[in-house]
Amino acid sequence: MINSRLLIGIIIISLFLFGFVFPQAVNKGADFVNGKTSLGLPHFWNMPFRFGLDLLGGTHLLYQADLSAIEQKSEAMQGIRDVIERRVNFFGVAEPVVQIQGDDRLAVELAGIKNVNQAIRLIGETPFLEFKEEKPDTQAILEAQQKGERLNEEPFQNTGLNGRHLAKAQLVFDPQTYAPEVSLDLNEEGAKLFAELTKRNLNKIIAIYLDGLPISTPVVQSEIPNGKAIISGKFTPAEAKLLATRLNSGALPVPIKLISQQTIGASLGAASLTKSLKAGVWGLILVGAFMIFFYRLPGIVSVIALIVYVLIVLTIYKLVPVTLTLAGIAGFILSLGMAVDANVLIFARMREELKAGKSLNQATHEGFSRAWLSIRDSHITTFIGALVLYLFTTSIVKGFALTLGIGVLTSLLTATVVTRNFLNLFIGQRFEKIRRLF
Length: 438
Fold this sequence. Notes:
Elements: H1 4-21, H2 23-36, E1 50-51, H3 53-56, E2 58-65, H4 73-89, E3 97-101, E4 105-111, H5 116-123, E5 129-134, H6 138-146, E6 156-162, E7 166-173, E8 180-186, H7 188-200, E9 206-210, E10 213-216, E11 228-231, H8 237-251, E12 256-264, H9 266-295, H10 297-319, E13 323-324, H11 326-355, H12 360-392, H13 395-423, H14 429-432
Parallel strand pairs: 1-13
Antiparallel strand pairs: 2-4, 2-12, 3-4, 5-6, 5-9, 7-8, 8-11, 9-10
Helix pairs in contact: 1-2, 1-10, 4-8, 9-10, 9-11, 10-11, 10-13, 11-12, 11-13, 12-13
């Protein structure tokens, strides 16, 4: 039976998704209508797709860390990764990728970056941790900065205490309140400096800077002579752990060196994008032609469902947002075949039921109900494969796995809901007389 409300809902949602995915075309149409009439049609929100390094152009940098003097190598690499990721974010790069590769290498992908040399200089610096104390006019500077004044003045001054004096920072919990805190253990030289520092700064701020930026501004509650301090505050466990990681990254003398640099020009990225889009369009056309040739009217319905599928998937890519790479587009094109595969199972079963002499209504019902188990199992196994690839591989393969996984889940919706509701439009006594269309 036709669910008219659901069918109308699918059509309305599909039209809206088309405007969201292709706003330029819809906005041009709105401008044309507004020029001829006084309707004042609004524009669709133009939210762009995100493209990766291989499509947008940019730089791929590979660094190697010197971990010869480090015991906790994985923690050291995590700390370095965190610091470099924060540095990269200052460039305003679209979807920067900072990944640990192997035991001592760090890959940095900067899509669309222009000043590559500046990026290399900043990323290549070893993280630097400093403890700073208030100046005589610190409070006046801070109050002025809150008003947007004296922004170029540094409110804190150097103390000589820095990352080489910090032995360890770790997440701990207050034994009474169970609130998350960060404990600091200083070496012998650092303990002496810290004792003097806390003695002369009671009830004042000691700011902790990493790479020239404050990451914590605790107030000294008492003199600390033994080099063991606690930073408390309204932390969540995740925030306290992140602060400890940043402190450790600044304390670790882990130099990194650039061992590989690859620059991809915007023209090469644009050419790759054009070829990928052509492949997607041709894939859609050939799949549609195959379905119409072999399954006739149901094939046309499957093409309509496939168009709805494409609109839903591209909308998800924009909203998540998914960073599209060549591998990701390959996953999308492959998912087109998966989306049609479900319709093939349904239509093949329908054809068998029609040959057995059943009515269109019975054949359609049997086609969907009996093909469902095969559709479910094939999609679940493919999704599991995509999930494993996403969890245990590098960024290039992750892009492929993510787009494939999204496509698999979406095709379940379009095959079982969209295809069925559109196909029900053609079930009735009129079409019983022209069964050859099926």
